[in-house]
């Protein structure tokens, strides 16, 4: 009441002063009631309605929005991020109410350096940028892709405690090749075909130069760029700017953590990872990103030399839409070429160029079947039956494609065919499977959300000028080691999303320690590099915790004691 009197608010608000807990409770009651009544069509009646209600809260009261998101992260992460964010992006023209973030388009060439100063915040720590060319597994959604950048940054705030006043979602609109959007009179973006080649590169170059000129210490996460540009842009910028690509590096890191967890679940030490036979379905940016990271991880464990790198290569069999990739493949994508099987090798295994996924699984008898194909239902009954021949005591299935409809198989399909011992992980959330005998089949969600907040926060607090492979590796290994032995033996290879802030704190600390090891630290705000290097692990964890923003209402008027 003292605050109300000092601010001349007495009589302008109802008399009862509500605590934060009461406010959250009131919002949740309202949300549950609306959830029952709201209907957005037959496909998913509640998800879009929930998103709308949460979005309105975000517009009204940012602090409260993040309080709700953090308190109920397990329930609402799938609403603000995958899978519902895919639905949001598909319907964005109809859902758009007010702009959030910045739009740089092909029409803005030559203007970007001045445009960045239109953003009101003098300090930006984190940018998530997309060109909308490959949103989740949904394809080219053009300017509607901004929804994914907004959702990603909500998780940076909730999971990593990045200050919401210092995040910036960005859409780079270079046109769209989606014919439906080109003809849609309500489409919000440029109605022209996508720019390509040097014209396209010039726009991304100009954007990067502009944001790093205004905010030299910002971190830029690239999100949902189509495969052909994802790698090129990563290689182009990663050694000069603080940037990473979540689809290539984040997906890879989460997959590596899961693969290492699967080794632990088989009762073997993580160092046995290089002995795993892995069949990979999908050779897009995510698939190749995982392959490169897995190969590097194996090579590190085998001594990190040329021979180790070559030995690691032979543990992978890659199958794309045209079948098994071998050296005989015409017009072989250069990113996939290191993983093309040698003709002599596959002849010995009874395989050939273009062999089907079922044939490959039958002949290879893999420990792991890893799906990054964006093809829903790709792991058919025949493929899963073939996996019964696996030489592993507990074969692992990773159906990692998003959103849910693109998952290569469901946990029910995997457990019903392969039995209770199989380890199952997916990219989008599924419910655990109850076997009815007191046992549970755990569905592990290998969500990038475990890693990217910690990678971003750790890079920010270390002051490292780049995001190195070692820092990404440290993040993945930290996540793999987070689980207890008991959990891993039960087939749980990823932790509960409800402890995401603690997971992020641990991963950020691991990233900082690796940056110190690689002599990349430059310090953050009041803590210089020299001081950071002297910190123990406990002090680094405390440093991380103290720099994580929490949604608290500031005290506006202090009572005099």
> In whole angstroms, how far apart are the ends?
16 Å
Tell me the major beta sheet. 7 strands, mixed
Overall number of structural domains: 3
Shape call: globular
- Please give the CATH architecture of the largest domain: 3-Layer(aba) Sandwich
Low-confidence stretches: 38-43
Describe this structure in words.
- The chain is of the alpha/beta class and 561 residues long.
- It has 3 domains: 2-225, 3-Layer(aba) Sandwich (Rossmann fold), CATH 3.40.50.10380; 253-448, NAD(P)-binding Rossmann-like Domain (Rossmann fold, 3-Layer(aba) Sandwich); 451-546, no CATH class.
- The chain contains 25 helices and 14 strands.
- It has helices spanning 2-6, 20-37, 47-60, 62-71, 73-80, 84-90, 92-95, 112-115, 146-160, 179-183, 197-214, 227-237, 246-265, 285-301, 306-313, 343-348, 357-364, 381-387, 411-418, 452-462, 469-481, 485-489, 500-517, 529-534, 537-546; strands at residues 102-105, 126-130, 167-173, 219-222, 243-245, 278-281, 316-320, 323-324, 368-371, 396-399, 423-426, 433-434, 440-441, 443-445.
- The chain has a 7-stranded mixed β-sheet with strand order 8-7-6-9-10-11-14, with helices on both faces.
- Helix 14 (285-301) packs across helix 15, helix 21 (469-481) packs across helix 23 (500-517) and helix 23 (500-517) packs across helix 25 (537-546).
- It is globular, with a radius of gyration of 24 Å.
- The two termini are 16 Å apart.
- The model is unreliable at 38-43 (pLDDT under 50).
